[in-house]
């Protein structure tokens, strides 16, 4: 529902009177009483990625019900594409959302790794599992392998990744069939990850940065959306609806940050406007990166004082004003229980990505001793943190159903998530192969999933805060890597600010 000015003013008044709000406005260095164990949630949000691993699992694997899978990926094209992540509840490796997931995990570490303590090692491992794969996928110049698995055939089966017998077809982009969106997102992922490994593994960091430079050149030189040439393969799953301009801006922003090469700043100055820097789209996720690029570039102006990027502070402020309840430019919808609601399919991805951006922008604003002005309403960094905290708290259980939307966190959480590996008995319990269609009996049953995919955040409730917990309901019950990735940074910040780390 769209919040009216009257009701939002009332909400604002309530916020100001609420002890929760006043708690969130204290100095963020001062430990306070928290309603949630954010440290536990952080730990679980990272463990989740181990449940999504493809390939040969390491001896350190903590999600023990998973086993090796897809060990010959790429062999049909005589390339090694073993590894990486399954994006959600199926067994396909989609390069576009995997790259975005990697960028957001890396950004979480770049911004909040300093307060992650013991979880920092685990966060870096989650990034490396993806970047090792992305290095394989970009090993040949002017070629990127962007998908392994036939989504249509994969979705016709309900089987464990360990049992997969559907075609592991390989799809690529190249000079003749470009894909600037997936290529520039891959460059962003490699560049962001190079920053995450800069201190602990400088050699790996340099390898990632060099590859990011090459991949971005390819993205920029051979322009076009990848869903043109690969439409029957990637659509409707991960079509590039927003075009590729946002990824070129986003990729350039990350390369500027990672390499400090002035050519990227110049690229942004020359191309920013044509790449949509000032557009008013306010959705940040695996498809549209404009808002993320605005926030990222605003730091250069706010903190590094790069005057030529002054406009990005204004662009970032416009996004902030669009989601502040009661602000004159607010266009965001919230459920009656207070959850940001963008769309019925996997809405929680927008909750986690927006919460991350709010906390990150609050950090930049605090460094620059400045605020956001939304048509006469002054919005402070404290207010942004309070809004982000409210969204994360809703996700963790402060909602009308008193249900945590993170599997394994809290006393009540989804039991029947739309996830093949979680819903079928593990190899150790059922060593025999479960055939393609045999699993549908379990998929359609009401029995809880036998394997707990710890830390998985599902698509979440509908616009009226309802959640049926049905395995067949992929819109609400399916977890995805790109839902969890931005949450890692948000939880690290909250755990630290409440003195839990």
Fold topology:
Layout: H1 5-17, H2 19-24, H3 38-51, E1 93-94, H4 95-112, H5 119-137, E2 143-148, H6 151-155, E3 170-174, H7 180-196, H8 202-221, H9 226-229, H10 231-234, H11 245-259, H12 262-271, H13 290-302, H14 310-323, H15 348-367, E4 372-374, E5 377-379, H16 381-396, H17 420-423, H18 440-443, H19 474-477, H20 481-497
Antiparallel strand pairs: 1-2, 2-3, 4-5
Helix pairs in contact: 3-5, 3-20, 4-5, 4-7, 4-20, 5-7, 7-8, 7-11, 8-11, 11-12, 11-13, 13-14, 13-15, 15-16, 15-20
Plain-language structure description:
The chain has 501 residues and is mainly alpha-helical. Helix content is 47%, strand content 4%. It contains 20 helices and 5 strands. The chain has helices spanning 5-17, 19-24, 38-51, 95-112, 119-137, 151-155, 180-196, 202-221, 226-229, 231-234, 245-259, 262-271, 290-302, 310-323, 348-367, 381-396, 420-423, 440-443, 474-477, 481-497; strands at residues 93-94, 143-148, 170-174, 372-374, 377-379. The chain has a 3-stranded antiparallel β-sheet. It has a two-stranded antiparallel sheet with strand order 4-5. A hairpin with a 2-residue loop joins strand 4 and strand 5 (377-379). The longest helix has 20 residues, at 202-221. The radius of gyration is 22 Å and the shape is globular. The two termini are 37 Å apart. The model is unreliable at 1-30 (pLDDT under 50).
């Amino acid at each position: 529902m769209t919040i009216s000015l009257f009701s939002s003013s009332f909400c604002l008044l309530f916020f100001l009177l609420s002890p929760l709000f006043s708690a969130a406005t204290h100095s963020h260095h001062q430990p306070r009483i928290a309603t949630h164990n954010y440290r536990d949630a952080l730990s679980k949000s990272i463990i989740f990625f181990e449940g999504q691993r493809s390939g040969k699992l390491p001896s350190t694997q903590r999600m023990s019900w998973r086993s090796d899978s897809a060990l010959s990926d790429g062999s049909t094209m005589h390339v090694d594409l073993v590894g990486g992540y399954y994006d959600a509840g199926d067994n396909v490796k989609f390069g576009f959302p995997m790259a975005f997931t990697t960028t957001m995990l890396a950004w979480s570490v770049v911004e909040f790794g300093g307060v992650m303590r013991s979880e920092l090692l685990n966060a870096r491992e989650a990034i490396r599992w993806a970047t090792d794969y992305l290095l394989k996928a970009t090993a040949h110049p002017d070629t990127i392998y962007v998908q392994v698995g036939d989504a249509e055939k994969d979705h016709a089966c309900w089987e464990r990744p360990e049992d997969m017998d559907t075609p592991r077809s390989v799809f690529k982009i190249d000079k003749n069939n470009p894909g600037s969106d997936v290529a520039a997102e891959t460059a962003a992922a490699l560049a962001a990850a190079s920053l995450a490994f800069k201190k602990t593994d400088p050699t790996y960091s340099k390898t990632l940065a060099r590859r990011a430079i090459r991949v971005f050149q390819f993205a920029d030189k051979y322009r076009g959306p990848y869903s043109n040439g690969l439409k029957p393969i990637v659509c409707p799953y991960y079509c590039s609806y927003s075009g590729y301009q946002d990824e070129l801006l986003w990729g350039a922003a990350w390369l500027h940050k990672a390499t400090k090469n002035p050519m990227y700043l110049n690229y942004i100055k020359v191309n920013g406007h044509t790449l949509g820097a000032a557009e008013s789209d306010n959705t940040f996720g695996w498809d549209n990166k404009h808002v993320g690029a605005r926030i990222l570039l605003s730091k250069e102006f706010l903190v590094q004082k790069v005057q030529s990027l002054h406009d990005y502070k204004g662009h970032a402020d416009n996004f902030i004003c669009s989601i502040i309840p009661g602000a004159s430019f607010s266009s965001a919808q919230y459920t009656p229980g207070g959850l940001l609601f963008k769309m019925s399919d996997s809405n929680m991805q927008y909750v986690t990505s927006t919460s991350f951006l709010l906390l990150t922008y609050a950090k930049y604003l605090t460094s620059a001793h400045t605020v956001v002005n939304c048509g006469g309403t002054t919005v402070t960094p404290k207010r942004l943190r309070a809004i982000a905290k409210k969204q994360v708290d809703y996700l963790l259980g402060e909602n009308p159903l008193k249900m945590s939307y993170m599997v394994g966190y809290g006393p009540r959480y989804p039991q029947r998530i739309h996830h093949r590996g979680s819903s079928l008995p593990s190899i150790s319990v059922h060593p025999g192969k479960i055939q393609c269609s045999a699993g549908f009996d379990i998929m359609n049953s009401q029995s809880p999933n036998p394997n707990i995919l710890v830390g998985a955040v599902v698509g979440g409730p509908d616009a009226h805060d309802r959640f049926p917990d049905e395995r067949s309901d992929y819109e609400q019950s399916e977890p995805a890597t790109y839902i969890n990735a931005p949450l890692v940074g948000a939880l690290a910040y909250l755990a630290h600010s409440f003195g839990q780390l």
